[in-house]
């Protein structure tokens, strides 16, 4: 894909982000779009946000569970950029009016105390470089009509990143079993779904190591102080005005988030054709559909 | 599972029917063959009828020299309860003949279509009596908790049944393996224990313990209250399984299974 088109799609997604509207999937309009093209479009999208005054504060890792990878027909995660405009503090109320078709997912976030530069980074290096981990919510959002995403669409759209909230209980990964720590997601006081760290690439540290190596190939290091959202351990939860979600990581603590207002598009009543993204803990055969 | 909500909970079966059905279930359990669900012949069967058959089945096993070692709760996830149209779990009894040691080879020749699920198990140090048993009562009466794998095996064709039939079939109980690490409940958050089940080295199911009624001790409290309805109690020393955290995964000869629990270690077994 030529530079002009990369720029055009990156600008289009940025304009959708600003105006809170959606566009048809890129793959429908550009059947030959590659993953490489998609990451270049993402860079342009983020470049526009940075030009408008935001800073890059970290990374998010997506598509980390086997059911979601099978659904999207890929064999590795993807990533997006976290910017200063996406940050909420625990206790803040998230204004849905700033989002398009938001859904929440519960994750473990890593904050680094040392730089980490691939290639050659292992999960052990990740633990060594980690200052602390915290439970967090990522509120994903899509600038693509009805979440009808394929891997190229979500990558170009900054891995469908919306906003995120870090919990306040910091844990040392040397004192916590991040692989077997349970994840309980409650919605309005009731258990909505449960998960476990291992749902993310066998361990959240594996996902962070993957990204360190992937970025390393592009010459980009993780910097001390950066936040890395390691990938969803819960089902995707559509949120509306008045909803309150709590995620609790076993042995660590909780992150609580409230929502108010109305998003630009309410989440589709029924999943789009081809089905909705499956939750990470569901491993049954019926979910192992390879689309594409 | 399939089936419609059963509203009535009156005993409808005659004593003769109860004995006949318990013999039928015992035959299917002992000789490992599938039978049609009992409600095909007795469409009006209620939950009370199911427990009457289960109680008769238990009486027969104990008379044959089996030892009652504890109980299990089933249908403990909200999804399963909604599917069966109930708001309480079901229960079944456990005998010494169903126990298998950790890390052993478990025969499938004497099972119909076994499936495995991960559970938190409780061992009691005090008697518990319902009605009105609470989560706090359960925690107070618990000696320790440990990780367990339940091997369930519905004796009904195609694992298709309704609530009355599955209760009569002792909640699909077949085998169980306790193991891992015994822990005091005071030292754990029993809501947030993460669990991963691996079959032949691949993760096949995962979750956290809150998947069981929000807290596994809640399932034990409900079990004690169901026992009270039947005029019974949960004695000290009982081994009690609180219900599947993960979905049930089919197993066959050659499969190797390991259940890994946060804070509780792991339980492994292989099937031959």
UniProtKB/TrEMBL annotation, chain A:
What EC number(s) is this enzyme filed under? Answer: 4.2.1.80
Q: Which UniProt keywords apply?
A: Lyase
* Gene3D superfamilies attached to this UniProt entry: Fumarylacetoacetase-like, C-terminal domain (3.90.850.10)
Q: Where is this region: Disordered?
A: 263-292
Q: Name one GO molecular function term.
A: 2-oxopent-4-enoate hydratase activity
Domain of life of the source: Bacteria
Top-level enzyme category? lyase
- Domain Fumarylacetoacetase-like C-terminal: from-to ranges: 101-258
- Lyase: present as a keyword of the record? yes
Q: What NCBIfam families does this protein map onto? A: catechol_dmpE
The name under which this protein is listed is: 2-oxopent-4-enoate hydratase
- Please spell out the taxonomic lineage of the organism that makes this protein: Bacteria, Pseudomonadati, Pseudomonadota, Betaproteobacteria, Rhodocyclales
Originating gene: dmpE
TrEMBL record, chain B:
Presence of keyword Lyase: yes
| Domain annotation Fumarylacetoacetase-like C-terminal: ranges | 100-271
The alphabetized UniProt keywords are: Lyase
The coiled-coil regions, if any, are none
For whether the record's keyword set contains Lyase, the answer is yes
What's its top-level EC category?
Answer: lyase
Indicate what this protein is called per its UniProt record. Answer: 2-oxo-3-hexenedioate decarboxylase
Which species is listed as the source? Answer: Aromatoleum diolicum
